[in-house]
């Protein structure tokens, strides 16, 4: 059944165009027509229509930490203690509720595809549940009910630090060895569908030894699955890796075969010039998480340098400190301005690609993140008559700049994901999101 959407403005071929008709069928865009005029049976989408955002790095459960870690001095490592306390309380049942509400918040902010970097696998003592993938299945079911696409990046996490056994809550994360991780990840593949991809992740060079990293790389390479890893988020990680192996985390991952066009380095905040060249030469993606990186006092990564080296940039909400892909886009450029004292390092097309096509590619959805015939039918409409953008529509040339540099998540008023309308007039059609967030968070804090 063909559905038609008439867009006041839409982002097509890396530019704003007025009066666009999108036709979809079977979850795909079948045609995109210019100068369409009003079509009687078309849904009218006011504002600027963009491809749905890909949130390429998420830990859904960390939504419950929002506002609970702010009022004390500390750094990434002290924040991590609070995160472990929360992680210890998760069960398949309460994680399903929390993830469903968190994914619904994402959809309301325009996210139609999430990459869930998933490492809370086992019960609090570290023993597998009767169904060893109970937690991963809960996360996938949550995404299905919320109505977005998911790439579950099942994460290999075997050590508490380089050469040290997992301790406390970390025991939930560990499969004991890479062979056991691989066997469990194989079974997870049964969940794959038109809206679900199962990929792999190495938590970090801290949490997996070099031989295990090679095993995960092989698992992902055998199937062409996306492979992600946290890389150089903290100087302390670099120091420990250089001390143990005489090379940086990026160089260690390269030596173990990880770097390819299926690989995404998450953060890459503290990378060297050699690391940047390796990531670029191997066609890698780097996923920045600017609102989390500033929240955790990580630092500002070299995004223009990476882009110039040939790296594709993507974006993620990571710790869910806030969920606002528009803010992530502009933070990529704004952080760079603060660091370099120059404006305009990233073009508007580059920022939108980071939030859309590049993120989809990093998550294995190679036909997502575009408004074009054949692409996934995932798109969103952003209000251009809000307090933040009023006045911009008089000049379509500046419309995308006004949206990226001034809009907020709540300006997203309509979301179509996999061909289905999930959000209309700023409301999720099946979930009372704020209420579900409050209830599910109360169940775990
Ligand atoms: Zn992360």
Keywords:
eight-stranded mixed sheet, binds zinc ion, single chain, about 450 residues, alpha/beta
Plain-language structure description:
This protein has 445 residues and is an alpha/beta fold. The chain contains 15 helices and 16 strands. It has an 8-stranded mixed beta sheet. An 8-stranded parallel beta sheet has the order 5-6-7-8-9-10-11-12. Strand 14 and strand 15 form a beta hairpin. Helix 2 packs parallel to helix 3 and helix 11 packs across helix 12. The longest helix is centred in the N-terminal third of the chain and has 17 residues. It binds zinc ion.
Describe, in short, the structure shown:
This protein has helices at 76-87, 92-108, 134-146, 178-188, 210-223, 235-245, 249-255, 273-281, 290-295, 303-308, 325-340, 348-355, 357-362, 399-406, 433-442; strands at residues 3-12, 15-25, 28-34, 43-51, 53-58, 111-118, 149-156, 196-202, 227-231, 263-267, 285-288, 312-315, 379-382, 412-417, 420-424, 427-428. With 445 residues, it is an alpha/beta fold.
